[in-house]
Design goal:
- With about 400 residues, this protein is of the alpha/beta class.
- It folds into 2 domains: about 140 residues, Aspartate Aminotransferase, domain 1; about 240 residues, Type I PLP-dependent aspartate aminotransferase-like (Major domain) (Aspartate Aminotransferase, domain 2, 3-Layer(aba) Sandwich), CATH 3.40.640.10.
- The protein contains 14 helices and 12 strands.
- The strands form 3 sheets. The protein has a 7-stranded mixed sheet with strand order 2-8-7-6-5-3-4, with helices on both faces. Strands 9-12-11 form a 3-stranded antiparallel sheet, covered by helices on one side.
- Helix 6 links the parallel strand 3 and strand 4.
- Helix 4 runs parallel beside helix 11 and helix 5 crosses helix 10.
- It is globular.
- Bound molecules: pyridoxal-5'-phosphate.
- The site of pyridoxal-5'-phosphate has 14 residues, from helix 5.
- The site of pyridoxal-5'-phosphate (PLP) has 14 residues, from helix 5.
Length: about 400
């Protein structure tokens, strides 16, 4: 028998420990025991992709022209649909030829962007708690991650003035994300304006990750980064059809904004992937052209769930704010109980899966995240179980 010793690359060894591994194990155990799990752990919409999108895909998939390699930048018709959507939704004018780039989901863009911009040792700023891929993408490019904390007292917005001047000057890019995962916070105009100013002053490229702009409550649309003057000059925005149109499995997203940044990202991508299946891009066009009333139906469902879960948790004594956007509840753990302890306790005593806040970075310690991606009856059942188990927020 032959044998080789497989040594993983250092970049893999340097990845932070997978904090959800322990939870995963407990979850598998609970499933084996036949427990009725309520999964409030994953941020993946449970509702199906709207029918007109599926119908469009069915037709497109039969067209042999779509069976060949797609263009690297994305079909021009898809990029035009993106530009039209940005104009309609954010009043932002984009050149579909140079200021829009298709992505195989926004995660792909987050992961590859540092390879396009970062040299070994370069500093990358990122808000924390945050989407873990900001850190791993930076690590793969040999960059140095510097986290900027999101604190409750600041409305989970970063305090840009608190970033030391030498750190700001050394930074090459900054990952920011509103509406925010996991805190569910939204940005305001003043913040985005100060972010543009910060970028310009310190020569830092902004990467605004905007997966949740269309999941909002009480009819209040959150402001988009591209609505602010100068945004398109100082950075890019990554967007995705995943959360808005219940299309997480389809893998389609896009980046818009600064041409030179998009050109650099496109160079990395053209050497690694060959674009998005054109039939999926056709479906993406159908999605972006959908009437907003269809999204209202989806938003109303999330709102009903939010209004079931969050006040219910508050009644049980938990410190949690009503989210204004995204489909997450960011809940403080009771005093003296860590994020992992709380997640473990809920799983053991109530068979409810949640995500420990420290899985999104150290700053998330003291919180757990629950998602609104199960029906209201299940959320009521979850509240019932928590109450019956005698678990309360204090
Ligand atoms: C879900 C999510 C993404 C990734 O979305 P895809 O487009 O499906 O890759 C990116 N950023 C944040 C903050 C997310 O929550």
């Amino acid at each position: 028998m032959k044998n080789i010793v497989v040594q993983q690359a250092d970049r893999i060894k340097k990845l932070p420990p997978y904090l959800f591994a322990a939870i995963d194990k407990m979850k598998q155990e609970a499933i084996r025991e036949g427990k009725d799990i309520i999964n409030l752990g994953v941020g993946d919409p449970d509702m199906p992709t709207p029918a007109p999108i599926i119908e469009c895909m069915k037709k497109a998939v039969e067209d042999p022209r779509h069976h060949q390699y797609p263009s690297y930048d994305g079909m021009l018709s898809f990029r035009q649909a993106v530009a039209a959507w940005y104009q309609r939704r954010f009043g932002a004018t984009l050149d579909p030829e140079t200021e829009v780039l298709s992505l195989i989901g926004s995660k792909e863009g987050v992961g590859h962007l540092p390879l396009a911009l970062i040299n070994p040792g370069d500093t990358v700023l990122m808000t924390s708690p945050g989407y873990p891929v900001y850190q791993s993408g930076t690590l793969f490019a040999g960059g140095k991650s510097v986290t900027v904390p999101l604190k409750k007292e600041n409305g989970f917005l970063p305090d840009l003035d608190a970033i030391p001047v030498d750190v700001a000057k050394a930074a090459k890019m900054f990952f920011v994300n509103y509406p925010n995962n996991p805190t569910a916070a939204t940005a305001n105009t003043e913040f985005f304006e100060s972010l543009v100013d910060f970028a310009d002053r310190n020569q830092v490229i902004i990467c605004h990750d905007a997966a949740y702009t269309e999941i909002y409550y009480d009819g209040k649309r959150p402001i988009g980064f591209m609505e602010v003057d100068g945004a398109k000059e100082v950075g890019i925005e990554l967007h995705s059809l995943s959360k808005t149109y219940n299309m997480t499995g389809w893998r389609i997203g896009f980046a818009v904004g600064n041409k030179e940044v998009l050109t650099a990202l496109g160079k990395i991508k053209s050497n690694l992937d060959s674009g998005i299946f054109q039939a999926v891009q056709e479906a993406g066009i159908a999605a972006l052209d959908l009437d907003d009333s269809l999204l209202d139906v989806i938003r109303n469902i999330y709102q009903e769930r939010r209004d079931t879960l969050v006040p219910g948790l508050q009644k049980l004594g938990f410190q949690v704010d009503l989210p204004a956007a995204a489909f997450y509840a960011w809940i403080q753990t009771p005093k003296g109980i860590s994020s992992s302890e709380m997640t473990a306790k809920l799983l053991k005593k109530t068979a409810i899966v949640t995500t420990p806040g420290n899985g999104f970075g150290d700053v998330g310690e003291g919180y757990i995240r629950m998602t609104l991606t199960v029906g209201s009856e299940r959320l009521e059942e979850a509240l019932d179980r928590i109450e019956r188990a005698g678990i309360c927020g204090e």
